[in-house]
Amino acid sequence: MNTLWEFLSMQDANVRFVTIGSVLLAASSAVVGCFTVLRKRALVGDAVAHAVLPGVCLAFLLTGQKNPIIMLLGSFITGWLAVVVMDIITSKSRIKEDTAIGLVLSVFFGIGILLLTAIQHSGNEQQSGLDKFLFGSAAALVGQDLYTFGAVALLLLLSVVLLYKEFKLISFDTNYARTIGLPVKRLELLLTTLTVLAVVVGIQSVGVVLMSAMLITPAAAARFWTDRLGAMVIIAAAMSAVCGAAGAFVSFTAPAMPTGPWIVMLLSLLAIMSFLLAPSKGLLSRFLSQRRVRRQMLRENILKTLFHLGEPTGEYQQSYSKTQILARRQLPLRRMQTQLQTLSRQGFVVKDTQGWALTPAGKKEAQRVVRLHRLWELYLTEYLQVASDHVHEDAESIEHVLTPELEKRLEELLDYPTADPHKTTIPQQTS
């Protein structure tokens, strides 16, 4: 508790610099990363992250010192050049974008490693710590670095706020944006520039190797929690800010632990949790939803089977044993027994000494499912020219998801039919 309080009080200036810098870098990268992900250019960020290394090395070779502003400028130039080269390769040749990204990433990163090796053997005393740009060293942030990177981070956030609507439009519908007169090329150019800037300011914290994770991971995680871009941007920025502060805290309490990799690790943990636990889109939620749908389909199939058994005689409330139900339709026995109990609790079936029978409410529900099945069979036969002996399986799948609106539309389209392709009566809708 004392350690946490000391951390929160920020008495150490270095702790303050590291924490604020990590939060700003993480949040600004996440905001820009949202648009990168939506535009399906996630790998471009990775290529740019590796392409900034030669810019760092060239800036040092030209100045002989590790001036953060000069290195920022050198990183930006080579990162931007990498984007231009990728665009030229894809537009002027038959090489696809993914191949162009791989080429640019490997070539630029190779040049950067070559220059870095030459610098390390040059004997220049100022080169100490330059290799930190490979893996990042947030703990090395000082006041001057914080002002420089903080200004760039605020510029990124301000640009997104001011041009939010325009960026949103070109991310989802470029053709419409072009139709209403927006300067799409300039906006894309600006968004690419912001992406390069986000990568450039982030390498000080996590390095070129992990920078793409700072750009992409929070956006990918936030995408699981919402369908709205505004909320996605806020969630991604909040996740990154929290992980940035947490990474600085881990580094403060355990000096041997690097800040940047811990930020990425925490972001990755949040992404995994989002993938598993997010409502509606998470793996667990989808599994539960699919299980509910499968159970509902099984219950409707049981009701439909009981309806079919009573259809020849018109005695829909007659009782039928499990053996008779299984003889009519192959169903998993244990699950059928469970769902019969559920249908009984819902008031759709009743059990007596002879077996199971439909209640009036159950007959109405079964009749609805049978009606949808036969309407869809007729639609497939008449409008899609599917042979009548091939429509049953398709109708089996669709009957469970047809809404009342679609049912009404089918009736109108088919001119209120009374029989399906097999000349079987289509049950009429009951009120």
From TrEMBL:
What this protein is called in its record is: Iron chelate uptake ABC transporter family permease subunit
Lineage summary: Bacteria, Pseudomonadati, Bacteroidota, Cytophagia, Cytophagales
Q: Does the keyword Transmembrane apply?
A: yes
Q: Which key words tag this protein in UniProt?
A: Cell membrane, Membrane, Transmembrane, Transmembrane helix, Transport
Residue ranges annotated as transmembrane are: 15-38, 43-63, 69-89, 101-119, 146-164, 233-256, 262-284
One GO BP on record is: response to zinc ion
Domain of life of the source: Bacteria
**CDD domains on file:** TM_ABC_iron-siderophores_like (cd06550)
Matching entries from Pfam families are given as: ABC-3, Fe_dep_repr_C
* Compartments (UniProt record): Cell membrane
Q: What are the GO cellular component annotations?
A: ATP-binding cassette (ABC) transporter complex
The family this protein is said to belong to: Belongs to the ABC-3 integral membrane protein family.
Q: Which SMART domains match?
A: HTH_DTXR (SM00529)
Domain Iron dependent repressor metal binding and dimerisation intervals? 359-427
**What's a single GO MF annotation on this record?**
protein dimerization activity
Signal sequence residues: none
What topology does the record note for this protein and the membrane?
Answer: Multi-pass membrane protein
